[in-house]
Structures are given as C-alpha cells and as structure tokens.
Amino acid sequence: MLILRAFPPNVRFDGCSLITGFHGIGATGYWTVKYLIQKLMAEKAVIFDSDLIAPISSTSQSRLVTPYEVFRKGSLAILKVEAPPYKDSEVEFFRAIGEWVIQSGFKEVALVGGLDSNLRYDDSTYRIAYTSSYKPVGELEKAKVLEDDHIIVGPVAILLNYFEARGFPAFAILAYASTERMDPRATAAAVNVLSKYYGFEVDVSTLLRGAEIIESELQKARAKASKAGESIYT
Q1: Residue 29 neighbours by CB under 8 Å, 6+ apart
Q2: Is the model's pLDDT at 114 over the cut of 60?
Q3: CATH fold of the domain at 5-203
Q4: Other beta carbons within 10 Å of 199
C-alpha cells in the first residue's frame, strides 16, 4: 500500500516553516490555511498522492484542486487539506506527513485548530500547545498555554504527538471558535497571530465582516425563535 508519495519528489524546504490546519472546530484550521494561501499568493510546490486519500478532486479559478497540496511563499510553506484520509488510516497517514516534513528540511511546524469557545474564561482569543523541542519566541513568548486536562484530538494531536516523539519543534495555535458552525472570527484570530509571528501582513477585514454577518443572522434567528415560542403561550 502506498502511504504517501510527493510530486515532484525530493523537493527541499531547508530552513522553511510549515503552516497547516484541518477541518475541526469552527473549520478554523482549514480556513486559516486557505485564506493565507490566497492573501499571500503562495505558489503550489508539492502534490501528495496516497492509497489512503479519498478519490476526489475539484476546481478553483479553472485549476484542478487535489486533496493534499503544499504551497510556498519565500521561507513559508502551507499544507492545504481538502478532505481527510480514510478514517481507519488517519493515524498512519498523518504520521507519514510528519515524517515527510522532517525529512524535507523544515525547521518548524505551526498547526492551527479550533478550541471550544465555551472553555474561554478571559478575553484572550487563543491558546497554544507545543512540543518540548520548541521554545516559544516573539508573539508566542507570552501566549497562554492550553490548560491542563483539555484534550486535543484529530490530525493536530497526531502530528503534535509524532513531532514530540521525533524531537521536532512544532506548536499549535488553538483559536476559540464555535462548535456549531464555521467561525471566521476564529480564523481571523489565528491569521493575526501567525502574521505577527512570521512577520507578514494580511488584512483580515473580510473575515471580520463575514463573522459580523453570520452573528447578526444568528441573533435574528434566535430572536425570531424566541418570539415564536412566546406566542404559543399567549
């Protein structure tokens, strides 16, 4: 079985940092990655093939989109994940991704995910978690670490665990997000942290406008439902 193959093979990313995220809480990781690729105008550098990837493809701006692609902009690389691998193969597949990262010369990995906003008790927008080989610097030096007993699951957890075992520097930015819908505000928070950390500029006003529209519509829907409920008893 073919676990993972990169095309073109043997592309090097010596000294580069990799950013990636997935379809988790609030779709925060996925939309952060997609937004950064668009705004930074990163170029496609690698396509992955695997027997463990679902047979799907799509198009975007007249170009074919495959499930797993790496984009590059200077010393930054961004892994975009369009669909999960087959469920029973998730651990094996993402461990293979982790090993490819290490063997390709990356210096660190930034993972992006969502964190249930019901767990927030202050005005901060995110928490971090990181491997013992990574030392928080810059924007993350004083960032709050994920509280004890809170659990990370899915690809972010698989990769953090693998990088910890392999002694590789990696960290996760976990932005507080809604568990019930896509959350552009959480995406904006993650993008802001990454832009300050890596020193690039990305306008998040589009994300914030999207968040305001969604929140406004939800507020209207709740008010309408509440009014309808009251009318039953009057």
Answers
A1: 20, 21, 22, 23, 111, 112, 113, 114, 156, 190
A2: yes
A3: Rossmann fold (3.40.50)
A4: 10
